[in-house]
Amino acid sequence: MLKYFFFTFFIIITIGYGIANYHEPTESHAASVTSGHGIVAGSVAPMLTVEQQGKDVILHFTIMNQTEHSVKYTFPTSQRFDYIITSPSGEVVEKYSDGRMFVQYVSTLTLKPGQSLSYHPIVKNLEKGDYLVTFWLTAKEDTFKTTAAFTIK
Question: pTM for the complete prediction?
């Protein structure tokens, strides 16, 4: 009987730890789904821009459903996106998922025709120099991996 108690206690603590370390998106990397003004082309198109604010940058990643049908994306964890920033020599400066924990649950997101999905994470304290950022969704169906170069002056 005592080992069942300890087993149950262990499970409750493990689940509680996972929930306690789960973080909803904050303003620095919140997602937004917006409706557009019609279909421009026949694909789901990614777009990545970089906005510099001193030594910080805001990565603006958007996918737009430009098809005539809804598209569904399945995410195996609470992580919705990832990015990696590298120097011109290929050295990894920052990777979003490094050192983070994500809740293990499957969820889906549906984009209707004309809708877009956007993420805007902030990367802080980059040194002066040239960088390359690659940004992608962590969906099973498609990652929409896209790359942009930027310079911190």
Answer: 0.73
Which domains can be identified in the chain, with CATH numbers? 25-152 (2.60.40.2360)
Contacts of 10 (CB under 8 A, 6+ apart): none
**Exposure of 116 in the CB half-sphere (CA atoms within 13 A):** 17
Task: Name the residue among 111, 144, 115, 147 with its Cα closest to residue 40.
Answer: 115
CB 57 within 8 A of CB 150: yes
Give first-to-last CA distance, the chain, whole Å: 65
Q: In this structure, are residues 21 and 119 in contact, taking their beta carbons and an 8 Å threshold?
A: no
Measured in degrees and rounded to the nearest 5, phi and psi for residue 65 equal: -80, 100
What is the mean pLDDT, run by run of 10 residues, along the chain of 153 residues?
A: 53 45 40 52 89 93 94 96 96 96 95 95 94 97 94 91
Contact yes or no for 148/49 (Cβ under 8 A): yes
